[in-house]
Amino acid sequence: MDTRLRYQENIKIILQEHANFRNTIPDGYHSQLLFDDERGGYLVLNIGWNDDNYLHATPIHLDLIGDRIRIQYDDTEEGVATDLLADYSAVEVASKQTKSAQRETKRYERL
């Protein structure tokens, strides 16, 4: 899978987790996800009413520019960058393990 497609999938998963968490809070607000793969835009939109208070906020806004993820806005406690880096690290570890296994296979094939 190429880098851009992998980033698109990872961003969607991470933002879905944030939206799911927000939607468990019983305060009248809910999260919507906005994905634009063609232009590389990814947003979490919090919207709704709580008594007389209206909320329309974008707590997370990410753009995928080329093969880089740009965090345009992040109003989360731990930061979406933490999730992205954790996900990227897991991908890197899996990639290194796969490459290591491929080298071992080639080594045994030569014997």
Walk me through the structure.
By secondary structure, the protein is an alpha+beta fold. The chain has one domain: XisI-like (TATA-Binding Protein). It is 47% helix and 34% strand. The chain has two helices and four strands; from the N terminus they run αββββα. The chain has a four-stranded antiparallel beta sheet, with helices on one face. It is elongated and about 45 Å long.
Features:
TATA-Binding Protein, alpha+beta, 4-stranded antiparallel β-sheet, 2 helices, 111 residues
Strand order of the largest sheet: 1-2-3-4
Specify the structural class.
alpha+beta
**Stretches where pLDDT falls below 50 for ≥5 residues?**
90-101
Overall, the morphology is elongated
Order of helices and strands: HEEEEH
**Mean pLDDT metric:** 83
Q: How many individual domains?
A: 1
Instruction: Indicate the percent of residues in helices.
Output: 40-55%
Largest beta-sheet characterization: 4 strands, antiparallel
Number of strands: 4
Name the beta content range.
25-35%
- Give the CATH level 1 class: Alpha Beta
Oligomer, anyone? single chain
Helical stretch tally:
2
CATH homologous superfamily classification: XisI-like
Question: From the alpha-carbon coordinates, what is the Rg to the nearest angstrom?
Answer: 19 Å
Q: What's the CATH architecture name? A: 2-Layer Sandwich
Short account of what is shown:
The protein is α+β, with helices and mostly antiparallel strands. The chain contains two helices and four strands. The protein is 47% helix and 34% strand.
